[in-house]
Give the backbone structure.
Amino acid sequence: MKVAIVSESPADEAAVLILLVGLLQQPIEVFSSPTLRRRPGGWTGVLRTIPTVLRHLYYNTDADALVAVLDSDRSVVHQAAHDAPDAAEPDCRLCELKSEVARIRGFLRPVEGRQPLKIALGLAVPQVEAWYLTGQDPHVSEAAWLSGLLSGTLPYDSKSLKTKVYGTDRPSLDLETRRAREEAERIVRDGKLPLLEQLFPGGFGALAADVRGWCPGQ
Amino acid sequence: MIESIEFKNFKVLRDAKLPLSRCTVLIGPNGTGKTTVLQALQAVREPARYPFAAVRSYLPLGEEVEVCVNFGPPHLGVHFVAEWYRAKGTQLGLRFSRGVEECPEGPALQRGVRRNRVFAFEGRAIARPAAVAANIELGENGANLAAVLDDIRDTDAERFTAINCALGQWLPEFKSILFAKPEQGSKSLMLQTRKEGVSVPDNDLSQGTLIALAMLTLAYLPKPPALIGIEEPDRGVHPRLLRLVQDAIYRLCYPESCGEKREPVQVIVTTHSPYFLDLFKDRPEEVVIANRVGMEAKFVRLSDHPNIEEILSGAPLGEIWYSGILGGVPSEP
């Protein structure tokens, strides 16, 4: 299966790829002609480019699937309830992205021999480093973040998450990529994917559900 | 660390205070004093090159031009002042708010400021053959790069290997840095391609490649100066590589985060690149916006903007800056 990963950096891409392979239990080829990147630091950029990326992948390439993971930062945390009909939350980034993807897919005309693109979308709450701490720091979870958002006292921030994962809040790309790969491999190898889903049900759970939907019966 | 620099009648910086972090990114429209800040550093380093007429404000305000460098903790209250007088020329000195005896490091701090380096890399200068010498310094336009790398190779093989490794990340098509000897006593650079093993001479390398190589070398200098200014380090570099440019700057500023055992360097960079700025979204304290107010320039730290966290949520920082809501954009007729 050839998967295009829209990510902010090679670090994110490496981790997402390992987690995908863990979920699918089958090898994946990353679409890399060229690799897709999104502009750092803003989810609105993804929202604007995703229609073009979708059309390009569908009409011009042999990619089978598209995966995108956003950071929630301090926005609304996605909940399973948002996925019910007409229950999408307007301030939820994942809901908005899903709605945009669904809208564009509706416009894609059938192409002979072309299967519909498989899509998986995730939301890292508040950012992907939180996922890497699965099995390492029990205080890092969507529930802890949600409770912090409600109380107004956040349990951690971007800098503290980075320091925990990288040992510095200003990691180089090289260090970021190495640690992302190490942590994603640890999560898969140690059988922590179910824990990752349990701790991050709205963001990683949504991604995992989408990915499982690619191969029904698995 | 230097906490701020105050300017009086220094060209467009008639009465401005620039707040500094270890890394400071200066943004703003043309003519708002970004390059002037770097010129002020050069003037402090080489006052003889900058007579009163070259540094004074174009408005007839006074007979005195001043650049005052204010140190923060643990040297709070120490100021290094460079003054230019129409009649007397340049004076450089230390001022102490607490008495000289309370800051024995004062002279060393002054030396640190005066040994600052400002770089504005140019491809052609980088590609010129360089005379080989021990302890040779990188020129302000990137001249001598070949000699500097040659010196690192000869004196610190481990560091040279690290530069070659980093080169593979910056420019994956190249495998290693090689040297040619165009004439006795001089060296020029070549980059060996990874796949074909072909050595590409520096005058066949693109401007962006040469600037990237100069940035990379700067980040790995064994003994960098305590204060560095860099004019548009993003120039000629592909937006996807800008994260590596940021890494290079952070390597200078935060040596401890990458295993370097040396003192941190304070870096001031200017940029017009929204893509480069995107990378500092989580670091609003490192971004300073220059604005023109009447006939003079003023600086505001991004983190001092009201409600900045909420304003920055959602869109990339470069895009927010371009919109104009943060200031630092050209005025329109």
